Structure formats: C-alpha cells, structure tokens
Amino acid sequence: MKFHHIASAAVIALAACATPAEEAGAPAHDIAAFNAPPLSPEALLSHVRVLASDAFEGRAPGTNGERLTIEYLQQAYEAAGLQPGVVLADGTRSWVQETQLTAATLTNTPTLTLSGRDGARQYEYATQFSAWTRRLDPTVDIENAPLVFVGYGVNAPELGWNDYEGVDMRGKIAVILINDPDFETGDDRGFGGRAMTYYGRWTYKFEEAGRQGAAGAIIIHETAPASYPWQVIQSSTGSARWDVVRADRGANRAGFEGWINNDVAMETFRRAGLDFNRLKARAQTRGFRAVPMGSLRGSIELQTRTETRTTNNVVGVLPGTQRPQETIIYSAHWDHLGRCPAIDGDDICNGALDNATGTAALIELARRFSAEGAPQRSVAFIALTAEEQGLLGALYYQQHPLFEPRNTVAAINMDGINNAGPTHDIEVVGFGKSQMDDLIAEAVQAQGRRVAPDSSPEAGYFYRSDHLHFAQLGIPVLYTSNGIDMVDGGVERGRAINEAYVAHNYHKPSDEVTEAWDMSGGAQDLEALYAVGRRLADSGMWPEWRENAEFRAAREASRR
To answer: 193 with 182: CB under 8 angstroms?
Structure first.
C-alpha cells in the first residue's frame, strides 16, 4: 500500500497449496458479512475480522493462511453471484490463476571491492552496500569490471533522453542516481517535475541496466530522492528475492543489482577524480553522456540458493449482458507477511488494514454489482497474490492476462481502505495521468466531497502497488488513497492517524482490528469507486490516458 517504502520485503517460505478439489471436504466458513447490506461498514468490518484473524496467520503466500484465504474468497465470490474467472486449457473454469514464483537467497556474505590506482577498498554488506542477483545461477562472480556513471540511467526515446547513448555497457558496472532528472530542479524536463515517473523507480533502473548488457548495476542512495532512509535498504538485505518464473532464468538482468550508501558513493567519486555534484547537475540536463569512472574497477561474488513455488491469484467475474468481452477490473492484493519478528510475544503480521480491507472491498463490490443487476460490460474482481514480494501476482497477470488488454476498459485498485471515519476528501494517487480522474471527481462531488491530488508525487507511490502492471498493459487505472481532511478532527487528525499507523502498525503484528476502527469513511470511498465502475460498465465509454502519461503508447498499441 501507500507506505511500502517504510518496511523491508518479507522472507516467505512457500508451501504447496491444496487445490480447491482437494479442499472440497473442508468445512465452509460462515460468511457473517452477508447478513449486512452490501458495501456497508458492518459487512466490510466483518470480512476483515475473518481475514485478519490469527487463524489466517497473516495470509503469507503458500501457507495455510493462503489456503484459508482462497477458500473464503471462493465461497464469498460464489455467494455474491460471480462465476470463476479463469478458463483452463480443457475449457473448464477455475477461481484461481496459478502463479509460479522463484526465490533467490544469498548463501554467502558478499564483499564489494572497488580497486583503483590508490589500491583496493572493501565495503561491508548491509551497512555500506546491498546486493543481490536476479540470475538463477549458483554463483555470480564479477571481477574487475570498469565503473561507468550513467546519470539517472534513463533510456526514454519518446522524451529524446538516453543516458546510455554512445556507451557499450557489456562487462561494465553502471553507477546510477535514484529518482528522475527533474526531481531536484522542480522544473519539468519531461519527467513531471518533482513528481516521480516510472523512470525514477529503482526497479526500472535495474531493468534498463540489464537491457544495456551491464555486468552490474549500483544505485547511489540519497534519502530525499529515494523517499526513505538507508535503514530501509539495510533491513531487507539478505532477504529472499522473489520473482516470477522467467524462461531465460534472469539471464537478461545485470549480473548483480544493488545500492551503495551515500558515504561510499562520495568516496568513490573522489577516488575517480570526479566532482559528484557537478556530474549530478550535468545528468539533470538533456544530452548528458555517461562518464567512465577513471581506473576504478568493481568485484563481487554472490552465491545463491534458488527454489520455485506456486501461489494463486483469485478471480471472479460478473458477465456483462450486452458486451461481455469488454471488462472493468477491480483488484486488491490478498496477501500479507505471515509470521514476522515477534513484538510483545505476537509474531503474526495480520495485515488488517494492509490489505484485508481491500480484499473485503472486492467481495462487497461484487455483492453490490450483483444486487444492482448485471451490467452491460463484464466486471472482474481479482484478488492478487505476492504484492508484498514485489507486485508479483500483478506482474504474472500482466504476462498472462485473463481478459484481453485491448478490451479491458479500466482497472480500479484498492490497497488500504479508510478505517478511521468519514473525510471531506479522497486522494488520487497519480492524479493527472488519465481521464479516470474526471470520473472519480464526479462521483466524489456527488457525495458533497472533493478529490485531492497525490500529496507526495515525488515519492512515486503510483508505481508501488499492483495497478502498475495493469497500466503497463495500457489499461487506464484508478488508485485512490485515504483523504486526510477528517469530518471529525480535520487535517490535523487525519495526518496524525496516518503518521501513527506508519510509525506503530505498518507491517507489524499490531496491524489488527481494534475498537477504534470506523469503516464508514471507507464505505463512502468505496461507494464512489462503485459509481465509477458502474458508469463504465453500463456505457460505451473508454477512458484515455493523458497526452503526457508514459502508458499512453501501450494503450494505443493494444487498441490497434
């Protein structure tokens, strides 16, 4: 959800999941929420109490918690009038889309060695650098690879910007700045000013370094442009790196990926005889060219253990009455961290807000659509897996879409539903990217409320939840976040609630239902999201990306 930059990725141990057929004899859950009106605060809270209970053990993929979650979702979807949304090879239907994942775990404690004319210096794992590999090889050994400063590591032909132009990165290590070239300047140099684009995300920078054939890729950590301190990177060091199964076993990625802290970076530039601040300023201008870092060479050896496991997306669909091939998607991730480091004897990260609330919303939106009658277009409700491991359920869906992207009208994603009471506003993350903004604004205005733009666009929250992979297919998306202007207590109380959640409950065992929960504001937000989906589902409307949105080209290509 919106606070994903705060905590490290969880290490999960996936267990084999029983199939629905194998679980047919399991006792059914009593879905108490169905005794309350659809999309009501009572129904939402009732689902969350079940999904975030200790019995579900934090809903980690591949655990008994996944089995219970899938069972609950299947029964709820069926009771809500949905059909299984996955068509298997033999023509039968299933509620689950099996998702193959790989995990790569370091078995050694690596050392990063940077050598130059002044000798060799070694840096300490976790405290000074972090590194991993996406290649599923037992050993990755990089020796004396030249370092090249590639600015922000961006190759954006549509913007006329290529930090790699004129340099052959094969056998070399790319040294890269985080965020976009216009983050610090604030003026829009093609990347939206201070608002981060996908080109500013660390995930993109590693992907592009791999496409350029780099032997390694190192990002320089700076707290402001990264939007989180070094401790966040340090806390995830050593964790298993999860990914979808790739045919090339990660061969298209750089041999290693990682970060160096700011002190190491400054020392490295000094050793190379380079002025970091001057080069950084050059990298913020169009026409920048990569700069070899003198005589410096990098060496590192990574030893890795890999495994492959299966988890599941859960998919239900309400077929359209007139144009069933055209689909609106609602999505939310069902997974959380499972067992986690104990606090006061509690080692279950229940994930009540993150994201039992979004999972509950899927069920209740399905009930609401059914209660109001099937729409003209189909509506799909997708509960995605492995979001906490890097949006992997959504990535798998991107690679194996169940509904044709060119016929998918829009996607609405939910990650953390307001549990603190009514607000005067609702925040749109990624505001300004598509015409979905206009639809949610009209729905919220009809409630006597207002839409607020993303309050922290420079942090790139738009690129940190599952809807990203729908957007990369070209599908216009809507992702909202809690408003902070509380009816009871105003902005001051809203900010205090958000800050307290991040400080005390986010990705901790204390993310549980308490007596203070008030889902009335969340229900109001979901009524607006329902209104947007219903309007699209009962019309011939096709929302479009704005001219400056980086996903517009993908949409145009898919529609052709």
So the answer is: yes
